[in-house]
Amino acid sequence: MRRLLTLVALLSVAIPTLCQSDPYARVDVGDKLPTFSVRMMDGSTVESESLEGKVVWVCLWASWCPSCRKEFKWFADSAEFATLLESEDFIFLPIAREENIATVRAWLRKKGYPYISGEDPNRAIFELFAEQEIPRNILVGRDGTIALHSTAYSRKALTAIVERAGEMLK
After folding, report:
1. What is the pLDDT of residues 120-157, one digit of tens each?
2. Number of domains in the chain
């Protein structure tokens, strides 16, 4: 009886947590990556169609966002994330929401982060993925479908994305 009560108590907490959906998301696991074009701070343009065949981590962020700042610190400190960046079949695609290239470049330089970010000054790309809330991370498989989608800063979620990306690269 005690075990049954413990199980019921655990399930009453776990099931709602596992079943919660993101009320602001416009894409979900299994959906195709939306079509977009993003101007990068190195002057290049990335077309979403060109990403197929790669494992892609889309990170929607902003330099003014405290959680995004924590996330970028995590990226810089994570040996596992650094290993992903070494793979030719992996693309890290940060896209700054409501910011321009000059602002993004200055912030990344100031912090010493080596990433090349795109800009989304009018939220056009962001709104393909969600209505609000950053940071937002989307892991896309080689076939162009979304494999994972998370929001808010969480080391546990970032670690899960790194692990899943590693599996997808094998």
Report:
1. 999 999 999 999 999 999 999 999 999 999 999 999 99
2. 1
